[in-house]
């Protein structure tokens, strides 16, 4: 993909992904923005500094204003910086659950003024941005964004390609991650996947990510059904087919711990009378 701008700060860069869809990178974080004749839609501001950098970059490169800011979900490491855009007469969009959480927690960012429960279709000139909720997966109110006609899919945190899922899955629902990713793959095709972290990819990359989640869940579940505790599972589960993913060695034991915790806290494996084990890790 062509690099169209490199910031003097090494943490920031802007890349043209496809047609009118651009990726903005700030350190390990990615967001997208979409440039149309009717204005610009930006997504996750990431931080005050990142938002200020992007705001200046967009003003210098394009002759249309920013009209919308869309949050991918509620987590503050993606929504922080919204206040940078708040004074520019733009519309802030989020799923209703993300908006509720930002208000309840008094998050120091711009509050959404347009929310939705299932799907929102936003038309900007010849471009359509389809925002859809797929149920619980990561945080609250996490959505996918599909940009047409470029046919680019943007998902933050609950689908990651080229890298392991984050550490011990803090704030994640493994059941929801699997369900939501299956729903994405069962839905309309997409030409390019952009994530909030790690790599861009295609359908095959998302399919492989789903297979990893399913293999991870099955390995932990089956081990717990056999009465194995966390330390044993972390020692025995290797999933070598995915050893090429970044952070494999560092995060696989943590991924195992995240699923183990879910099966205790959500599925109550420690109350199962059919399992002869004491889960005390």
UniProtKB/TrEMBL annotation:
InterPro entries: Metallo-B-lactamas (IPR001279), RibonucZ/Hydroxyglut_hydro (IPR036866). SUPFAM superfamilies: Metallo-hydrolase/oxidoreductase. It holds the Pfam family Lactamase_B. Residues 28-197 form the Metallo-beta-lactamase domain. SMART domains: Lactamase_B. This is Beta-lactamase. It comes from Methylophaga frappieri (strain ATCC BAA-2434 / DSM 25690 / JAM7). The lineage of its organism: Bacteria, Pseudomonadati, Pseudomonadota, Gammaproteobacteria, Thiotrichales.
